[in-house]
Amino acid sequence: MKRFVAIGALAAAVIALHLLFAAAGAEYLLVQLTMAAYYALVVIGLCLLMGYAGQISLGHAAFFALGGYTAAVLSTNSFTQLMGAPALERLVHWGLVTAGTDAYGAAAHQVPVWLSLPLAVAAAAAVALVIGIPVLKLKGHYLAMATLGFGTILYRIFLGTRLFGEADGISSVRPCALLPGLTIGGDTALRTQNYYFAWALVLLAMVLSLNIVSSRAGRALRSIHGSEEAAAAMGVNTARYKLYVFILSAVFAAVGGFFMTHFNGGIGPAEAGIMKSVRYVAIVAVGGMANLWGSLLIGVLLNFLSLRGIFGSYDDAVFGALLVFIMALAPDGILRREFLHRIMRVRIRWPFSK
Amino acid sequence: MQYLLSGITTGSIYAIVAIGFNIIYNTTGIINFAQGEFLMLGGMISISLCSVMPLPLAIALAVAVTAAVGYCIELLFVRWIHNPTVLRMVVMTIGISILIREIALHVWDEKVRSLPYFTGNEVTSVSILGARISPQILWVLGTCALIVVLLNLFYGRTLLGKAMRACSANRMAASLCGINAGRMVTVSFMLSAAIGALAGCVISPMTQTQYDCGTSLAIKGFTAAIFGGLGSSSGAVIAGLLIGVIEAVSISVLPLAYKDAVTLTLLLLILVVRPSGLFGSREAGALKEF
Amino acid sequence: MLRIRNLESGYGSLRVLKGISLHVNSGEIVTIIGANGAGKTTLLETIAGVVAASSGEILFDGRDLVTLSPERIVAAGCSLVPEGRQVFAPMTVRENLVLGAYIRSGREGKAAVAEDIDAIHRHFPILKERDGQLAGTLSGGEQQMLAIGRALMARPRLIMLDEPSMGLAPIIVRGIFEIIGRLRAEGNTILLVEQNAMASLGIADRGYVMETGQIVLEGTARELMENHDVQRAYLGKEYRSIGEGRG
Question: So what's the ipTM on this one?
């Protein structure tokens, strides 16, 4: 019951923010909120993985980028040149490729979104499966380095491959028409519908995650975080649950990356970089590891501020400092009652302390 | 031959980074993800100092300053945290590495810099076994060999070195011998930072130094440390050299952009197939907390 | 020499010692006997500073050890030979001994340490034979000798031994107790924790009996040996705890 209230409150907050910005004539802020929502998808997945399954991943940006690059590659005009006319004709006939125009108005053939989105999800899930089976057996430093290594490999591949545009990334990705009247793209006219679409995805991910957390599987997950041996002894198949969550979080990230790329009209290798992955980890840490709502709140807030350019050239430094100080002072996150109490006590004592 | 030599050169640096990881790991059980930043700091500081003083002095001072940074890290972030979880320390040292990198970015900007060649210049070369190589390669190899030898003497012969080994063998028993385990941790951070800084100085003329050059070195060094069996210095040397050579060979076969990907794939393979490393025994590996 | 009053300590919220008071006079062997889990090891670890005391005092020659770190307690002259020996397995026998003298090395120099190692070798000739061998490759009895030798290297005025006979064959146990007797004859003060009540009361001057974190009985070794409750509970005459015996 409490869950529905919270979800309802989130939905209300989304609407309220829209109305607030509209009233203030600052609707351009919705753009950053939309992007923050897509990043929040990664954060929610990572929170499930880190907080509830106790598995760190320093390579999650790679999944986001994987979704994004799938969208970019499949929707830029590569198919027109890639294939001979007969093959192309057949694909068009089957509806696997649709004829259209590219961002410059030239004739182009693109994979429709009903195919490219599942492909992006499948790609992320497949990579997560292949990587996850061996890597999730590792613990501690080894898991951290392995995921860091995995993230860096994908980053290098995106950076070094022609198909992915090398260091420039892929730009001029076309908006995609998801439903009649709903197009994912960066056009000003599409701003409001994109905002609601992105947040609907976040709501969906939250509902899904909250259900997982409180399900039998979720209790098993929490038991993993406590003690893997104990959970295994109780007959919980910890390996399988860890893998499920890893794949799910990868899919969340890929979906976020997919729509973000259509929304932004492009993607670059920096999205897969270590700094991005570390940033997601920082957000989950600040939000309090096993705290979906906290991570969501902090994630949206920090990404929004960061996207607004508040931190300037200290952007990465802010996230680094956050990591260090949260881990040193409040390893359970800042949204814990004990920590807030301590802060309050310090503030109350402050004037009298000397 | 040329590939082999350049492989051994970068490999010896990886070995030094791996040894740096091991020094801290052995006394604390922590993998210091900021290890690569020590090399960057050593290089950068010596480059800055080099313009106002002779090269040897600049390097010595850079090593000392970096050791002081290592001391500060230990003092500020490690000393007072009791029984930290591995996850917490991993995330924390990553945060520290980002902070150092960002500070370096604001102090030295994004420009790629380098120390002058210790002897001669870019085009000087000496001929060894038919291969023409830069004398800097000899400096790198010599310094790395010296570091390894001195470290062995330190750990094997001096009381402080023995006390540090005792701490890593059995911390409680060490403190029951009157060894201040906390001080050993401080020493290990300083030592690790100093060695990293020195390595950062000697490679600077060849590979150049940039504010973010530490990350990839750290990953390679970690690969070497794991490959050689976490905690084992001799393993680290062999593994470091091996990785350097593999990388050098991979460049001749694959595009340069995939160089890091090759090493990292190797890392993943090692982690999955034999996390105790090539030379570490499986039982010893199982005893350590991963 | 050592006087403990109302000592309490434990791990986290678990209280193991519930108000222990005891004393050890100079030149004595005092033994603490008791069943598994009575808190004997915790008591020694609290004195040595490995476990923090939550209240009470530990006076060692009039100086309170409660707030000191383990290193400082060793420097004050109070050494613990821990349970399970805890030698530095990957280091040689000689290195183990040298590290035992760690606190003295700075002041007294290498020659004094080498002299003491010779003295240890006279006590334990086997350690001389094993000088360059890794401590982890020694047998259990040899490791116990090394652990005692290592503690002696600090020249302590009080040696605490935690279960020196644990896991050793009877003949080796006899050897270890002979050594303890010899140490006492040389004027050492010893606090001995043992499950092997018979042997430890055999060489001790006085003894304490511990049950669930409290001292339930104290007296001279002879008194304890003749006590029916002790005989029943610890000397194998009949299994029953002393608390039950007293009703």
Answer: 0.87
